[in-house]
Amino acid sequence: MPPRSQRLLTFVALASVLSSAHGLVPLHNLRHRDIRSRRATAMVVGSAGGAMPDQLSDWGCDASLWAGYPPGAKRDLERYARTGKEELSRRRMATVREIRKFTDAPVAEWERGVWDKAVRAWEADQALKLAEAKAAEKAEKAARMVEAKAKREAREAEEAKAKADAEAATAKAATAKADTKAKADAAAADGKKKKSEKEKKEKKEKKEKKANKKAAAAATTPKADNSDGKGALRDLLLSSTRTP
To answer: What's the confidence (pLDDT) of residue 233?
Structure first.
Protein backbone atom coordinates (compact mmCIF):
# COMPACT_ATOMS: atom_id res chain seq x y z
CA MET A 1 0.00 0.00 0.00
CA PRO A 2 1.48 3.42 -0.97
CA PRO A 3 2.52 5.74 1.85
CA ARG A 4 -0.14 7.96 3.29
CA SER A 5 1.54 11.13 1.99
CA GLN A 6 1.59 9.76 -1.55
CA ARG A 7 -2.10 8.86 -1.42
CA LEU A 8 -2.93 12.30 -0.06
CA LEU A 9 -1.05 13.88 -2.94
CA THR A 10 -2.96 11.63 -5.34
CA PHE A 11 -6.23 12.66 -3.72
CA VAL A 12 -5.38 16.35 -4.04
CA ALA A 13 -4.22 15.89 -7.61
CA LEU A 14 -7.42 14.13 -8.61
CA ALA A 15 -9.50 16.86 -7.00
CA SER A 16 -7.45 19.50 -8.82
CA VAL A 17 -7.82 17.68 -12.12
CA LEU A 18 -11.58 17.47 -11.67
CA SER A 19 -11.71 21.18 -10.99
CA SER A 20 -9.51 21.98 -13.98
CA ALA A 21 -11.68 19.81 -16.23
CA HIS A 22 -14.73 21.83 -15.30
CA GLY A 23 -12.66 24.92 -16.02
CA LEU A 24 -12.07 23.74 -19.56
CA VAL A 25 -15.77 23.80 -20.46
CA PRO A 26 -18.47 25.34 -18.26
CA LEU A 27 -20.94 22.84 -16.84
CA HIS A 28 -23.88 24.53 -18.53
CA ASN A 29 -22.12 23.90 -21.85
CA LEU A 30 -21.64 20.22 -21.04
CA ARG A 31 -25.06 19.55 -19.56
CA HIS A 32 -27.18 21.86 -21.67
CA ARG A 33 -25.42 22.17 -24.97
CA ASP A 34 -28.75 22.35 -26.77
CA ILE A 35 -29.29 25.86 -25.29
CA ARG A 36 -26.57 27.31 -27.47
CA SER A 37 -27.34 27.66 -31.09
CA ARG A 38 -25.07 26.52 -33.84
CA ARG A 39 -24.47 30.10 -34.72
CA ALA A 40 -23.23 30.97 -31.25
CA THR A 41 -20.98 27.91 -31.27
CA ALA A 42 -19.54 28.90 -34.62
CA MET A 43 -18.79 32.35 -33.25
CA VAL A 44 -16.99 30.91 -30.22
CA VAL A 45 -14.95 28.55 -32.36
CA GLY A 46 -14.12 31.32 -34.74
CA SER A 47 -12.96 33.61 -31.93
CA ALA A 48 -10.58 30.97 -30.52
CA GLY A 49 -9.56 29.28 -33.70
CA GLY A 50 -6.28 31.18 -34.12
CA ALA A 51 -2.82 29.71 -34.42
CA MET A 52 -1.18 28.15 -31.41
CA PRO A 53 1.10 30.57 -29.52
CA ASP A 54 4.80 29.72 -29.96
CA GLN A 55 5.31 29.77 -26.18
CA LEU A 56 3.03 26.73 -25.80
CA SER A 57 5.37 24.64 -27.96
CA ASP A 58 8.10 25.16 -25.37
CA TRP A 59 5.67 24.01 -22.68
CA GLY A 60 4.74 20.73 -24.38
CA CYS A 61 1.86 21.54 -26.75
CA ASP A 62 1.78 20.49 -30.40
CA ALA A 63 -0.49 21.07 -33.39
CA SER A 64 -2.59 17.91 -32.91
CA LEU A 65 -3.17 18.67 -29.25
CA TRP A 66 -4.05 22.28 -30.05
CA ALA A 67 -6.55 21.17 -32.67
CA GLY A 68 -8.32 19.01 -30.09
CA TYR A 69 -8.70 21.81 -27.53
CA PRO A 70 -12.17 23.19 -26.83
CA PRO A 71 -12.53 26.93 -27.49
CA GLY A 72 -12.50 27.88 -23.82
CA ALA A 73 -9.26 26.01 -23.25
CA LYS A 74 -7.63 27.73 -26.23
CA ARG A 75 -8.57 31.15 -24.87
CA ASP A 76 -7.14 30.22 -21.45
CA LEU A 77 -3.91 28.90 -22.94
CA GLU A 78 -3.47 32.00 -25.07
CA ARG A 79 -3.87 34.10 -21.93
CA TYR A 80 -1.45 31.88 -20.00
CA ALA A 81 1.10 32.22 -22.80
CA ARG A 82 0.78 36.00 -22.75
CA THR A 83 1.14 36.21 -18.97
CA GLY A 84 3.85 33.55 -18.71
CA LYS A 85 1.84 31.12 -16.54
CA GLU A 86 3.68 27.95 -17.50
CA GLU A 87 2.44 25.76 -14.63
CA LEU A 88 -1.22 26.49 -15.37
CA SER A 89 -0.64 25.82 -19.06
CA ARG A 90 1.03 22.47 -18.45
CA ARG A 91 -1.75 21.36 -16.12
CA ARG A 92 -4.42 22.37 -18.60
CA MET A 93 -2.68 20.51 -21.44
CA ALA A 94 -2.28 17.41 -19.25
CA THR A 95 -5.99 17.45 -18.47
CA VAL A 96 -6.91 17.73 -22.16
CA ARG A 97 -4.65 14.79 -23.01
CA GLU A 98 -6.36 12.67 -20.35
CA ILE A 99 -9.86 13.56 -21.57
CA ARG A 100 -8.99 12.89 -25.21
CA LYS A 101 -7.96 9.34 -24.28
CA PHE A 102 -11.66 8.66 -23.76
CA THR A 103 -12.53 9.59 -27.36
CA ASP A 104 -12.59 7.22 -30.32
CA ALA A 105 -10.06 9.40 -32.14
CA PRO A 106 -7.69 11.03 -29.59
CA VAL A 107 -5.87 13.02 -32.28
CA ALA A 108 -8.96 14.37 -34.09
CA GLU A 109 -10.05 17.99 -34.02
CA TRP A 110 -12.37 19.13 -31.29
CA GLU A 111 -16.07 18.40 -31.70
CA ARG A 112 -18.61 19.28 -29.04
CA GLY A 113 -20.56 16.01 -28.96
CA VAL A 114 -17.41 13.89 -28.89
CA TRP A 115 -15.82 16.16 -26.30
CA ASP A 116 -18.86 16.15 -24.00
CA LYS A 117 -18.99 12.36 -24.11
CA ALA A 118 -15.28 12.11 -23.36
CA VAL A 119 -15.60 14.56 -20.46
CA ARG A 120 -18.39 12.49 -18.90
CA ALA A 121 -16.36 9.30 -19.25
CA TRP A 122 -13.28 11.03 -17.84
CA GLU A 123 -15.24 12.46 -14.91
CA ALA A 124 -16.59 9.00 -14.11
CA ASP A 125 -13.07 7.60 -14.21
CA GLN A 126 -11.76 10.39 -11.97
CA ALA A 127 -14.64 9.88 -9.55
CA LEU A 128 -13.80 6.19 -9.39
CA LYS A 129 -10.15 6.93 -8.71
CA LEU A 130 -11.14 9.48 -6.10
CA ALA A 131 -13.43 6.96 -4.41
CA GLU A 132 -10.65 4.37 -4.48
CA ALA A 133 -8.22 6.86 -2.98
CA LYS A 134 -10.71 7.69 -0.22
CA ALA A 135 -11.33 3.99 0.43
CA ALA A 136 -7.59 3.33 0.58
CA GLU A 137 -7.12 6.23 2.96
CA LYS A 138 -9.98 4.98 5.12
CA ALA A 139 -8.56 1.45 5.13
CA GLU A 140 -5.12 2.74 6.06
CA LYS A 141 -6.61 4.85 8.84
CA ALA A 142 -8.46 1.80 10.16
CA ALA A 143 -5.26 -0.25 9.95
CA ARG A 144 -3.35 2.45 11.83
CA MET A 145 -6.03 2.51 14.50
CA VAL A 146 -5.90 -1.28 14.85
CA GLU A 147 -2.11 -1.18 15.03
CA ALA A 148 -2.18 1.66 17.56
CA LYS A 149 -4.72 -0.23 19.66
CA ALA A 150 -2.61 -3.39 19.55
CA LYS A 151 0.49 -1.44 20.60
CA ARG A 152 -1.44 0.30 23.37
CA GLU A 153 -2.83 -2.99 24.69
CA ALA A 154 0.62 -4.60 24.50
CA ARG A 155 2.12 -1.65 26.38
CA GLU A 156 -0.63 -1.77 29.01
CA ALA A 157 -0.14 -5.53 29.39
CA GLU A 158 3.60 -5.02 29.77
CA GLU A 159 3.05 -2.27 32.34
CA ALA A 160 0.55 -4.45 34.22
CA LYS A 161 3.04 -7.34 34.24
CA ALA A 162 5.82 -5.06 35.45
CA LYS A 163 3.54 -3.76 38.21
CA ALA A 164 2.52 -7.30 39.21
CA ASP A 165 6.18 -8.39 39.24
CA ALA A 166 7.10 -5.40 41.39
CA GLU A 167 4.27 -6.13 43.82
CA ALA A 168 5.28 -9.79 43.97
CA ALA A 169 8.90 -8.81 44.63
CA THR A 170 7.78 -6.42 47.38
CA ALA A 171 5.60 -9.11 48.97
CA LYS A 172 8.45 -11.61 48.78
CA ALA A 173 10.83 -9.16 50.40
CA ALA A 174 8.29 -8.42 53.15
CA THR A 175 7.81 -12.15 53.76
CA ALA A 176 11.55 -12.73 53.91
CA LYS A 177 11.92 -9.82 56.33
CA ALA A 178 9.12 -11.17 58.52
CA ASP A 179 10.70 -14.64 58.50
CA THR A 180 14.09 -13.19 59.45
CA LYS A 181 12.55 -11.21 62.30
CA ALA A 182 10.60 -14.22 63.50
CA LYS A 183 13.77 -16.33 63.53
CA ALA A 184 15.67 -13.59 65.32
CA ASP A 185 12.91 -13.24 67.92
CA ALA A 186 12.79 -17.02 68.40
CA ALA A 187 16.59 -17.16 68.79
CA ALA A 188 16.49 -14.30 71.28
CA ALA A 189 13.71 -15.95 73.27
CA ASP A 190 15.56 -19.28 73.26
CA GLY A 191 18.76 -17.58 74.42
CA LYS A 192 16.90 -15.78 77.17
CA LYS A 193 15.28 -19.02 78.28
CA LYS A 194 18.59 -20.85 78.33
CA LYS A 195 20.18 -18.02 80.30
CA SER A 196 17.37 -18.05 82.83
CA GLU A 197 17.63 -21.82 83.20
CA LYS A 198 21.39 -21.54 83.62
CA GLU A 199 21.03 -18.84 86.28
CA LYS A 200 18.46 -20.93 88.11
CA LYS A 201 20.73 -23.96 87.92
CA GLU A 202 23.76 -21.99 89.15
CA LYS A 203 21.72 -20.51 91.99
CA LYS A 204 20.44 -23.90 92.96
CA GLU A 205 23.92 -25.40 92.85
CA LYS A 206 25.28 -22.53 94.93
CA LYS A 207 22.53 -22.96 97.47
CA GLU A 208 23.12 -26.70 97.64
CA LYS A 209 26.87 -26.17 97.96
CA LYS A 210 26.34 -23.73 100.81
CA ALA A 211 23.98 -26.14 102.52
CA ASN A 212 26.43 -28.99 102.10
CA LYS A 213 29.26 -26.88 103.49
CA LYS A 214 27.18 -25.92 106.49
CA ALA A 215 26.19 -29.48 107.05
CA ALA A 216 29.82 -30.56 106.81
CA ALA A 217 30.87 -27.89 109.30
CA ALA A 218 28.18 -28.94 111.70
CA ALA A 219 29.26 -32.52 111.41
CA THR A 220 32.90 -31.76 112.38
CA THR A 221 32.05 -29.63 115.48
CA PRO A 222 32.04 -31.77 118.81
CA LYS A 223 28.91 -31.62 120.84
CA ALA A 224 29.00 -30.42 124.50
CA ASP A 225 27.88 -32.77 127.31
CA ASN A 226 25.21 -30.95 129.26
CA SER A 227 23.68 -33.92 130.83
CA ASP A 228 24.56 -32.80 134.35
CA GLY A 229 23.93 -29.13 133.73
CA LYS A 230 27.52 -28.28 134.44
CA GLY A 231 28.98 -28.60 131.03
CA ALA A 232 28.06 -25.09 129.91
CA LEU A 233 29.63 -23.57 132.99
CA ARG A 234 32.73 -25.57 132.47
CA ASP A 235 33.06 -24.59 128.91
CA LEU A 236 32.66 -20.95 129.84
CA LEU A 237 35.33 -21.17 132.46
CA LEU A 238 37.68 -23.00 130.16
CA SER A 239 37.24 -20.45 127.39
CA SER A 240 37.92 -17.54 129.72
CA THR A 241 41.14 -19.06 130.96
CA ARG A 242 42.50 -19.84 127.46
CA THR A 243 45.34 -17.73 126.22
CA PRO A 244 44.42 -15.83 123.11
So the answer is: 58
